[in-house]
Amino acid sequence: LLELPADEQLAVSTDTLVAGVHFPAAADPFLLAQRALGVSVSDLAAMGASPIGFTLALTLPGAEAAWLQAFAGGLDRMAQDCAVRLIGGDTSRGPLSLTLTVFGRVPHGLALTRAGARVGDLLCVGGELGDGAGALALVLGQRQAPAEIAEPLLARYWSPRPQLALGQALRGKATAALDISDGLLADCGHIAAASGVALLIEQARLPLSPALLALLGASGARNCALSGGDDYLLAFTLPAEHLAGLQAQGWPVHVVGRVEAGAGVQLLDQQGQGITPQARGYQHFGSDGD
Predict the structure, then answer these.
(1) Which of 6, 41, 79, 168 could form a disulfide with 162 if both were Cys (CB 3.0 to 4.6 A apart)?
(2) Is residue 132 domain-shared with residue 225, that is, in the same domain?
(3) What's the number of domains the chain is made of?
């Protein structure tokens, strides 16, 4: 039973991760557990919520003690980092998959949602984009890189850090928010649709890490940032008057565009002209070219 004070609301989100779709079937169980919980708690960050607990439904092809011990270790590590407790769940036999439901609390009326972006707002992100997507070729063994390049990218993929504190700092300031899981272009499309506005993204303002640039070059890094997904950083719309204060407090707020009247998401070059992106992001039931 979960009981909240009358002045708080319950935030709930569920994620399912399937072997061969969301992670390699032979993934290290410690890292897999960290990633699974991290990406789930990121949904709470996107709502500005404080974590309460989570449930886990784990389907396994077999019960191997060493695998389960490593998985439990990774799960505990991320749970401690996020200050969230396992409060229930289930296990069953079958192809490897994980379903996590996370629960959080947020002051009544202050939850961040995808709706609410207003014309004139800034479009912002909470850090350097594309590292998780850039790491995928390393995860799959399709590419190799020196440790100083590979390690920070792999860390972003396997151990995403939910921006819980940033989400809470944005309560009462951001007009709309979500976490970037399917790519900046695709996820900004959700804000645009829910808010009834157009989002303009300026390609030259995308924050990119040195490691990603070293691995893929400028063009490849931009593609990962725009449509690669697996960032689990916050994207949000913000009235301009709040920007300086947040940055002065040390929050990693990067302006990447703006909100205008209209619909959809448009990518702009340095001259302000529209660009047709190579891809818009991951589509759960779309074609490869979507």
Answers:
(1) 41
(2) yes
(3) 2
Judge whether 260 and 160 are in contact, CB under 8 Å: no
175 part of a folded domain:
yes
CB 229 within 8 A of CB 159: no
pTM of the model: 0.93
Find where tokens 């990119």 sit. Answer: 208
Per the CB < 8 A criterion, the answer to whether 132 and 180 are in contact is no
Closest CA to 164 of 104, 210, 115: 104
CATH, residue 139: 3.90.650.10
Alpha carbon 250 to chain centroid distance?
20
pLDDT 10s digits, 55-101: 999 999 998 999 999 999 999 999 999 999 999 999 999 999 999 99
Residue 133, classed as helix, strand or coil, is helix
Residues 131 and 265 in one domain: yes
